[in-house]
Amino acid sequence: MAGADLARDILAGAADRAAALEARTGVRPCLATVLVGDDPASETYVRMKRNRCAAAGIGSRLVALPAGISTTELVDRVGTLSADPAVHGILLQHPVPAGIDERAAFEAIAPAKDVDGVTMHSFGAMAFGRPGFVSCTPGGILRLLDAYDVPLVGRRAVVLGRSPILGRPVGMLLLARDATVTYCHSRSRDLPELVRGADLVVASVGRPEFVRGEWLKPGAVVVDAGYHPGGLGDVHAPSARVRASLLTPVPGGVGPMTIAVLLEQTVAAAEGLVTSPAS
To answer: What are residue 233's phi and psi, to 5 degrees?
Structure first.
C-alpha cells in the first residue's frame, strides 16, 4: 500500500491549481515554515517540504528561529505570519525544543492558514464534520485507504497512539466514515488482544517495530505511521507481511501522502483567501 504514486498525482493536481490561481489573480500560493532550533531530522523534513513546494509552483518562506526562543516570542512570530496577506499557509515544524509551549504556538496560527490541521479549531471542525483543514497525516491515510478500496463502514479499527495531530484525528476521520474505532495507548491492557480483533490497524505509537505480526488478525489492513532511523516503522514489517492483506511501507507509504495533503491544502487556503470578501 505505497503512497508515492498517489502523492505524485495529488501534487500534480495541486500544481495545476496553483498555476491557474496565479494566472487568474497574479497570486502565487505561499507556505511559511517555522523551524525552531537545529534538530537534524526537522531540518531534513523542512528541506524536503520546500523542495516539494518548488516542484509544485508553490512559494515557500523559511522562518528559522533559535532553540532558545521563548514561547511568547514564538507566538508573536507565528501571529505575524497569520496577519501577513502574502502568506497563505503556516507550518510549525514539530516537535519544538523543550521549554516551549507547542500548543500555544499552534493556536497562534489563523484557522484559515492552518494547512497542517494542528489547531483546536481545525480538530473541532474535523470532528464535527465542518469545513476546515484536516491534519495532514491522518488526511493522507484516509486518501490512501480510499485509493486501495479499503472498506471502512462497519469495520473494526484500532488506533495505537493518541497524539493530537495523528492518533486522535485519524480516529475521528475513521469514525466519520462509519468505522468502529478503538483507541489504544501506553496504558491499554491486553494490547495484543485488542489489536488482534481489528480489521484495520493504524500504528502511531512512536516506538520502532512495536507492533508484531503475531498480534494481527489474518487479512488485516495495517497502516504504519511511524518513522525511525534506519527506515524502521512502528510495525515489525517482516512478521506483519505474513498476516496483513495490505501494509504501508516505511519509507514510501504514509510520508509522501502527508506532504501531498499539506501542499494541496496550502493551495486551497490561497484560493479561499484570495477570493474571500475580506481579502
So the answer is: -110, -165
Annotated catalytic residue, options 116, 199, 224, 234: 116
* 93 a catalytic residue: yes
Return the CATH number of the domain spanning residue range 23-110. 3.40.50.10860
Domain 136-253 belongs to what topology? Rossmann fold (3.40.50)
Instruction: Determine which one of 93, 113, 224, 265 is catalytic.
Output: 93
Cell of 212: 508484531
Q: Is 190 a catalytic residue?
A: no
**Extents of the domains making up the chain:** 23-110, 136-253
pLDDT per position as a tens digit, 209-232: 999 999 999 999 999 999 999 999
Bind-site residues for NADP(+): 161-163
Q: Catalytic annotation on 265?
A: no
Grid coordinates belonging to 145:
485507504
Closest C-alpha to 144, from 258, 24, 25: 258
Do the domains at 23-110 and 136-253 have one common CATH topology? yes
pTM for the model stands at 0.94
Query: Position of cell 492483506?
Result: 245
Q: What is the pLDDT of residues 260-272, one digit of tens each?
A: 999 999 999 999 9
231: amino acid identity, one letter: G
| pLDDT band of 275, cuts 50, 70, 90 | low
CA dist 119 and 165 (Å) reads 9
| 45 vs 103: CA distance, rounded Å | 20
CA distance linking residue 97 with residue 142, whole number of Å: 30
Which residue positions form the known binding site? 161-163
